[in-house]
Structures are given as C-alpha cells and as structure tokens.
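#data-curation
PF: Archiving a pair of folding outputs for the training set. Convention for this channel: one message per protein, sequence first, structure tokens after, nothing in between. First:
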Amino acid sequence: MIRRFAITFLCLCALGLSLTITGLAQNAPPPAPASPPAPADQAQPARGGRGGGRGNPTPPCGSAVTGKNMAPTSRCFEMRTYTVRAEGPGDINLLHARFRDVTTRLFVKHGMQLVGFWQPVAQPDTLVYMLAYKDNAARDASWAAFNTDPEWVEARTKMNVGVGVVSVFLNAADYSPIK
C-alpha cells in the first residue's frame, strides 16, 4: 500500500504536479459514528463511488486550509486509486471503458474538474485519477449528485467492476504551477 502510494506520488511529481498532502490514504473502514472526525492530517477512508459520502466527512481542503507551504488559493484535490479485484467482477479494460464512455462526462456534468487519469506501468490492474473541487463541501455535493444520477446507476450496473478504492485529499503547495 505504501509502495503503491509512493509510486503514484512519484508519477505525479514527474508530471510537474507539486502538491502538499493533507491526508494519507488507507483502506480502513470509517470509525464508529460516535468517534470525532479525524484531523485533516490523518488517514482518510475513501469516499464517493458507491459509498456516497458515508463515514467521516471529507476533510477540510482547498483555500479554507492554511498552513506553511500551502497555496492560499488552492483548490481541493482528490487523488483516487482504483485497484481491480482479482476475483472480479470485471477487469481493468472494462473499468477504463466505463471511465472513457460514461464516468468522465458525468464527473464534468456534476461539477468535478478533471485533472488527469493515469495507468501505472508497474500495476496493470490499477487506475489513478485526480479531480479538483472548490472545497470539501463542493466535493461532497458533486459526489452526492453523481451517485444518484440515473445514467451513472445504469452504467455502474452494466459495466460492473470490483475495485478497492484509496482516496487522498491534497492542497497545492504555494509554489505549485497547478492550484
């Protein structure tokens, strides 16, 4: 898991993206509802997709988060890593087809800004992509609308792919060319 994150981070750096991480990814279930939300600098479970924002709220990100080395005008970036489960259903080619044919168009329809999509060369069963939002509230509203879109519900059913999802929230560094 840490190796996968390091490879993804190195790929993004090689593309000229310089971002400050506001949370480390993990595949742990969300804590019990009685627990206080995790601070923004701690690991966050993946949200969006079928989860629909259940669990802890999205950590603060975007221009509302200030700190040393963070751009005060940063958008809220979310790097999502999908790893196709060996037991299925579906495969990486079906996942790419679903993104190519349906998902990316619906992301734009629901206010998500597409930053990029990557296929790690050493992990052929993995898709990494990055989205940007004004802030965490805009992110949650976009995912809520996306998850209930009838076209998405149909595509998800017809092009079903079993994936593990890791989501990392980021703010741009103050010297980053992309904010």
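PF: Second:
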Amino acid sequence: MSEKEIFELFDEKAQELFKSNFSQNLAGSGVTIQFNKDKGFAPNLRKGPDYESIKSFVITFRNFILDSDPISIRNIAKIYDALPDGNDFKERFQNTRKKFNEYMDSLTIIEYNGDKLSNRKLIDTYIYGDVIHLKKHDEFKNWISINPMKDVIYNEIVRVLGICRKYIYVFNEINKEYLVTSWDR
C-alpha cells in the first residue's frame, strides 16, 4: 500500500467515525446515579450513545491504535518521522501524537482495587474484554458487575472515546493537508 493510499484510508476510516451513530449521540452524554438510604441504588440514567453504537465506533477506532494496521497512529508517525527535521507536518503530527499519548496515559475518575485506571487501560480493557478477542473478558465483566459501576464505566468509555475522536480529527486534518501538498500538485 502506498503512502498516499494509507493517508486516504486513514481519512476514510476517520470519516466513518465522524459520521457514526456514536458521534451523532455524543452531545449530552452523562450518567445520573441516585441513592436512597432505604432502597439503595436506583437504576442509573445514562445518556449518550447506546452500547451497540459504542461497540461499532470502537471496531473502527481500533484501526488507529492497532500497530498491525497500516493506518495506526504509530505507523503514520513513521511516515512523518522520515521527513526532514523542521518539517511543519512532522512537527504538528509529533506534537499531536505526544498530547494524544499523554491523554491516553492520564487517569480516569475510576478506581478499581485501589488503582486509578488510565484512559488507555480503560479503552484497552473494553476493546479486549467486550468487543474484540475477549482476552480481558473476565476483567471487564468484573468492572461492570458492581452496581452502579456499569453505567459509570460506560460513561467514562464514551467520554474518553469522544476525546480520542477529536484527536483523530486533528491527525486527519494534518494528513489531508500533507496529501494536498505532497501529491496534488
């Protein structure tokens, strides 16, 4: 696959994310937890993308984080890394990638067994525990088995993926500008 085809595929998959049901239902996402001292926890009121929309979004999103995929952020970075130092596209992509990785390594509001979960741990465990491969199935099921944690965890997944979507948008804009200047002369 040529570099041009890789950037075009990146754009195609990014557009799928931007037009997805997940993206259309992202605004107003949240969860309300109610507790009554006599009745315990009431059913949670979670707003935002439904479970199927989240899964569908993640199936496409994982193309950007799975190193075996040609459009992964790491593989796209290799293309930019080959450009000369001082290249604007290279610097913009590297800076955005650094911010994205810092975000992914930052902590969520969720603490499990005394440890705060990072955004990366949350998303990886969801992907590999409920959506794909299922090698972390037991771990993810343990997380969501505790009432009211299921809706809190899904709300955090939606929040983190919503921010990841914004990063994909920035990466894609850099890529499209690079495509125009490199191939469309």
